[in-house]
Amino acid sequence: MDIDDILREVDPTFHAVPREKRDLQDLTRAWVAERSAPELLPWPSSGLFERINDRIKRQIERVEEMTGDMDPKTNFALIVIQTELERYKYLVRSYLRARIAKIDRHTLHYLSTDALRARLSDMELAYATRHQALLHNHYLSSFLSSFPPALQNLNDTAGGLTMIDTPDLDSAVFIRLLKDTLVEGRGVDADGLTSFEENDIIILRWSDAKPLVESGSAELPVLETSLPIFIMADTYTDIVLITGANQGVGFFTAEKLATEHSNYHVILAGRRQEALDEAVAKLNAAGLKNVESLVLDVTSDESIEAAAKAVEAKHGRLDCLINNAGISNNAGQSDPRQLWLDIYNTNVVGVEYVTRAFIPLLKKAKGAKRIVNVTSELGGMHSKADKNAFAHKVDYAPYSITKSALNMLTLHYVQRFEDDASWKINLTCPGFCATNLNHYQGFDDPKLGAVNSCRLATLGMDGETGTWTNRHGPMKW
To answer: pTM of the entire structure?
Structure first.
């Protein structure tokens, strides 16, 4: 049994009216929004308050009619009606007080333009006008009269500076998303663009939240502690994509970036969705939620194109591309010529086509545009020519030569963008790490192989470009 059932028993003529229920919901939303927003919101133009006031009057009359009736059922219904009445009255009072407080604080601001005046009801406009007139007369009689006439206006804009105090539109607010939305928020160091789902609650500046609220994509919510809250202020300032990230150095690069840079959103790309899901689940279990998976086969033009479109649709840009995917052999290939072609296709052509596909998104980065290509000491000409070098004795031509080609390809990209200092295009050598690439024969921990990749992936506008380094320093070409 609800309130409507109780009221029907007492008054058979009473029927639930959907409009009244909607009005209460609208009043509650307006109250929450007004108390949450740092500036005055437009006065409801749908006749909401006229209907609410009429309902309050009718409820008061009903209470007066029922008062004095000693029937227990009537008395209980009276309590219910009075409770509902007090709820309406509280919401109305609190809503109006919130608006009056904003008008008192920034009266001149809300009277300064027709658009701002339109936010006020007729009574609020009359109140604000009288309030400002009284305040100005008080100041005038107190001290303004002693100033030159040109300095007696409270809305002085001399020198290009306004004396009108305005609301802080960068104040933080909570919003609840009413549909899946790509949200852009401004952080301290950079801006962030992040995809959120319906019913997610996030906190960001009102100036960023306002367009979402006005478009109907979000509302200022009554917070429930059981709901997850996402902070946009410094979240996801950088979108990073790592190929071959479901295992080895690529995975530990993703883990290190996501752990040490919570404002980075890391996309783990690879060929197999199942392997990617396992990698993301492992990171999620470690408390890292700023990661996602993306199927991307670097040997497939269709897969590359689809991946670029997916990143563009969800994030709108890319700040860093780490070309980590690579192979050293193909166990299923018995034809020696095809083996060479397979390795070259992955390690060189794949990097070229992935990079080419994501250049348009990298151009949209709001800070440094970073490309990190993962190469190997085996690709160095100097190391191969030096009889005392480790790489000199390693006789694995297909892999080594593809890495030499990758080094040259990287320098071509460096040359193409050398006139734009925002591009940071570099090579990194992870070292001889124990990974699936070398059947776990390496003597370095793959976590160490991620160190320099992460350093280059987080370079700022003053960072290096056109270099080849490992975690210890420069490499010899």
So the answer is: 0.54
